[in-house]
Amino acid sequence: MTQKQLDESTAYLQGKGFEAPEIGIVLGTGLGKLAEEIEDPIEAHYNHIPFFPLATVEFHTGKLIYGSLEGKKTVVMQGRFHLYEGYDFLDITYPIRVMHQLGIKKLFISNAAGAINLNFKKGDIMLIEDHINLQGGSPLAFKGVGNFGDRFTDMAEPYDTTMRDILVKIAEKEKITLQKGVYASVVGPQLETKAEYRMLKIIGADAVGMSTVPEVIVANHLRLPIVAVSVLTDECDPDNLKPVNIQEIIEIAGKIEPKMVRLFRELIKSL
């Protein structure tokens, strides 16, 4: 990744009309509906954006959508990249750097995750308060990272406390169950064994997924305030573990999605 590449990607999007967005949103597995609510949308498919990776997961569509949401210019990433697709950390986080260069001031992230904390239920939404990086690497571990920001990025509070507090109040007002917890990010794509679920519980994870953490690290590197939620699509009880049906996970994500959309819309409205 070079500054020249970022400039080219940004210039292409600006040429299509992506002018000074304030909010960036990354949509997780089965969570593409928010993109349909964008007013006056302009779309850019990943395969047309210079130096952008391509989404290879069948339920990730692969385009940036720009337009207005609650009166604010927004750019939505419909379809994200994962280590399990064979991408590296620089590929996965490249779109965050491009959105930042376009001008976003806040980043919202969503993902579908499994509930490790058995007090949480399938169908709940979890506000991520902290994370554990189990992906075996960092998107900041490359030569020349200092040209893009501080090499030794502080992660004492990776998720913006102000936006978290606002989301908690919105959830109370909207009567949406919003759990709070720690998200563990693993490589995947295989799901966890019983022993792995037990380990995750011991180390303090409340939910587990295969994304989000690289994007959050880079956003912190760019000093970009982030709020992130996990849509809990399955319960990871090692003592009663059933085989997981990915199609069912997508369906559950789709059912919970309207609540997540409501939370994000109200948060945008309040900013």
TrEMBL record:
Known NCBIfam families for this protein? PNPH-PUNA-XAPA, PRK08202.1
Q: What is any Pfam family matched here?
A: PNP_UDP_1
The EC number on file is 2.4.2.1
The record's section on Gene3D superfamilies has:
Nucleoside phosphorylase domain
Q: What is this protein called?
A: Purine nucleoside phosphorylase
**Function summary:** The purine nucleoside phosphorylases catalyze the phosphorolytic breakdown of the N-glycosidic bond in the beta-(deoxy)ribonucleoside molecules, with the formation of the corresponding free purine bases and pentose-1-phosphate.
| GO terms for biological process, alphabetical | nucleoside metabolic process
Q: Which lineage ranks, top first, belong to the organism behind this chain? A: Bacteria, Pseudomonadati, Bacteroidota, Flavobacteriia, Flavobacteriales
